[in-house]
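Co-fold these.
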Amino acid sequence: MACLNPDGTLTRSAQAVLAALSAPAGETELLQRTSLPRFQIRSLLRDMTRAHLVDEAEGVYSLTDDGADLLDTVSR
Amino acid sequence: MSDLAEAAIAPPGLPRLNEPAPDFEAVTTHGTIRLSDYEGSWLVLFSHPADFTPVCTTEFVAFAKIAGTLRERGVELLGLSIDSIYAHIAWVRNIEEKLGVEITFPVIADLDRAVATKYGMIMPGESKTETSRCVFVIDPRGIVRAMIYYPLTTGRNMDEIMRLVDALQLTDAHKLATPANWRPGDKVIVPAPLTLELAQERVADGYECTDWYLCRAEAPAATSEPAQPAPAS
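Predicted complex below.
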């Protein structure tokens, strides 16, 4: 899974997307908030949704508690 | 044999211009990617015969050098070969280490040849185990707009790929065409008129016409402006 390293920590690109989800956002907002290309954001969002780090409702993505916890670990 | 059974053994159709690009989900150096992940962007999907081979290495360096310019035009690059993800990772790292060039675009590890088969990238007359040097330009709606096939022995020309992208984007934005050897900034071709009346008017319209069917105009500077006739002189 491209969003997680083998030790369970977030990859750099996954960190960037999760950090950009400090407020819920759609794809276009995430494009503006990160320097990542559209295809990579979509791929990461799919991975992170499967990993229960992100929730999606009607095209708007938000952090789950697990996602927020993992992001918090990085920033500590 | 039933239609269903025939369909099951029939070789997949090859991509055709102006038809939807074959869908895929593939393992890449950037994680799992679907064709639909590129919806809204142009995509240059290209195959190379094998990792750690000399011509392919020169091509990868050349593709990496145009990646930034392509992205400025809303175009993403996606490579492919019948190699493992580990081979791709090792080769990409080797190119950065030995040649100082970072490969920023993803590369599909198509070990089961699923994507290569859908796109007709394997030419058995050339090699049964490698993909030829194919390029597919796919538009933001997922439609195949151009295809280039080169043999194993000939490395591709990045100027031509850039020129092709520029021409496609220009002709999409304006109802015009590009002549032989066109380069950005050169005059463009005004589509030939379809009625006798239009043909007669065309010559009088102020375009630079060799005859009614071959008229040129200055290329529009901005994508929102239609092609303008050259000033009459």
